[in-house]
Amino acid sequence: MRIRVIFSLKNKGAVLPFHHQKLIGSLIKDVLGNEYPEDEVLYSYSGLKGQTKVGREGLHYFSKRVTIVFTALSEDFLQLLIKKFFSQPYWTLGNLILLPERVEKEGVPSFSEAVKFLCISPLVILDTPSNTRNKEFIYPTLDEFSDYLYESTMHRMERSGKFTAEEISSFYRFQIVPDKGYLERIARQEKKFARIYTLIIDGSIKEVRGYTFPFELYADPRVQEFIFTCGFGELTHKGFGMLDVPESLSTEREVIYEDKNIDS
């Protein structure tokens, strides 16, 4: 299930860091408390979407409304998240004051054995306990890149309890094909598609490399739907690895909750 939580922004011009996933992660902790340990749920979320202007301090938000997209395997988890978001009149995200207004459920696209994806949050392929390789750069066209993501995806699918051992074994076809034109264009413009991101886990600072680029994935349609629903790669519960499908049914939305007390 995939939802968009839409907030009214009460202090236009307020600023967030360019990468603010950890702030959203802290907000989710505040919203849920201890009812759902974050690392026990297969889910992910986007950054804060809205009309922005780039400034020295980060992103200044000027739109009347802003949005966070959440996606999870468990509908119960998302229903609880909705309930908690609307349990109080406003929340703070960094310096932003957000009033929960409504929730829209996105449509689900049809999946085939070849699907084009966009990264709408950075994709992390390595999260080692020793933290020794997490910043290593692996070029996306290398088989090693696909191999790490395959192992991560099969582990998470097994952990979900939604697939049998026989099904997991049958998902052996798995290959990522990056958009080479995009990578070449980024190189010519001397821009980056891979950066180091810092987050805090259990009180310790962790640095990981995240990748943001379009790609096509060849895999079983059930695998495609799983990563679209649960996020792709490592640290999805920290807001990494959220994907979208270009021109998908995600543009078709149904309002499933609305606060009638919000002044529109």
From TrEMBL:
Protein origin, superkingdom: Bacteria
GO terms, biological process: defense response to virus
Keyword RNA-binding: yes
Presence of keyword NAD: no
Keyword line: Antiviral defense, RNA-binding
An MF annotation (GO) of this entry: hydrolase activity, acting on ester bonds
CRISPR associated protein Cas6 C-terminal domain residues: 111-245
Family affiliation: Belongs to the CRISPR-associated protein Cas6/Cse3/CasE family.
Name listed for the protein in its UniProt record: CRISPR-associated endoribonuclease Cas6
